[in-house]
Amino acid sequence: MAPDTSPSPSLRPLSFCRRTHAPESPVLKWKSLEEVMAKARYTVVEREDYDDLICDQCGSGDRPDELLLCDKCDKGFHMKCVRPIVVRVPIGSWICPDCSGMTSVRRLTQKRILDFFRIRRRDFARKCTAPSRDARRRRRTRPLVVQKKKRRLLPFIPSEDPVQRLKQMGSLASALTALHMEYSDHLTYMPGMAPGSANDTDFERGGMQTLSMEDTETLENCKAMSTRGECPPFMVVFDSREGYTVEADSPIKDMTFIAEYTGDVDYMKNRESDDGDSMMTLLLSKEESQSLVICADKRGNLARFISGINNHTLEGRKKQNCKCVRYNDFE
After folding, report:
1. Beta-carbon neighbour count of residue 119 at 10 Å?
2. How many angstroms separate the CA atoms of 110 and 87, rounded?
3. According to the model, what pLDDT value does residue 33 have?
4. Taking burial as the number of CB atoms within 10 A of a residue's CB, which of 18, 180, 192, 266 is the most buried?
5. Quick one: 256 exposed, middle or buried, by C-beta within 10 A (0-12, 13-18, 19+)?
6. What one-character DSSP code corresponds to residue 55?
């Protein structure tokens, strides 16, 4: 069948002719700069000198390498002062939240923080009931046997000052809000992902570590403290190179339990092309198609910011002082 070479109905051939006389010059009407700026989406106006640039939030011009310049209002913002916090220097143009119409993340009040973590105010106001590390150990009734001592988990010791605990929870709530995440202190099984029945230790290749009765009690005790607002003594902070990370508010002993890694449970095969930095292995099955991962991109807790702290560089490896252990809590 021969191709149709007839012109398309929506296209019309054009014919050109040469003018034999000069056209009349049209009358040009110049618009004022105010009219141009009012109709323009945004206009980039280059300044001659940026030495006096300061952050519109904190009023400081320190750390100029972290100052971002809005391409619309020409104001400066530190990467960690703007809300949501900017983790990496953006490529190309950047517009601040005020000019883009984005809802800013404001400082959270005590009521909003407690509501965010679903903590009752009367439980938060009570004095911390965390066990003291200086408490005497129970005397053994059986004779001592010379053997290698098995190390046990220690419960975290929350800050005694309720104001400081509120700051710690506020830093976590702000970080989760900036990443558009919900707080969750348990594993979640969402439709379209792995069901709860897939998380079975019988599927684990090579077996899984089992918690002792003492470690299980420590774990349950820490969970109970978290429901009362007695959180681990950590502040979630922002680092210009690492993004969100954590800082300890007080010394923490070795083998201290901090938090369970929580989030949505999904099959590892569904996340092979996922470039997220918040996945954690949950189950390594004998059949690779049944292996599970925890995805803390929509729901999570403090563990989201502890795991994988820049461990790809030599400096980051020095900070890797936490260990994640997969366990079975049923003996």
Report:
1. 18
2. 26
3. 67
4. 266
5. middle
6. B
By C-alpha distance, which of 306, 307, 301 is closest to 173?
Answer: 301
Poorest-pLDDT segment among 74-78, 259-263, 290-294: 74-78
How far is the C-alpha of 239 from the C-alpha of 88, rounded, in Å? 10
Count of positions (residues) in the chain = 331
Cα 302 to Cα 26, 157, 172: the distances in Å are: 68, 15, 7
pLDDT digits (tens, 9 = 90+) for 31-46: 776 676 666 655 455 5
Strands 264-267 and 243-248: unpaired
Torsions phi, psi of 294, nearest 5? Answer: -100, 125
Q: Where are the extended beta strands (E) located within the chain?
A: 67-69, 76-78, 182-183, 209-210, 234-239, 243-248, 264-267, 279-283, 292-295, 299-300, 327-328
Rounded to two decimals, the pTM is 0.62
For the chain, the straight-line distance linking the first and the last C-alpha, in angstroms and rounded, comes to 76
The per-residue pLDDT for range 55-114, each reduced to its tens digit, is 888 888 888 888 888 888 888 888 878 766 676 677 777 888 778 765 445 567 888 888
Quickly list DSSP for 134-151: TSPPPPPSSPP---PPPP
Q: 């918690």: which residue's tokens?
A: 211
* Concatenated DSSP letters of 236-272: EEEETTTEEEEEESS---TTB------SEEEEGGGGT
Q: Which DSSP helix (H) or strand (E) runs through 318?
A: helix 314-319
CB 244 within 8 A of CB 306: no
CA 239 to CA 86: how far, in whole Å? Answer: 10
> What would the two tokens of residue 263 be?
């989030």
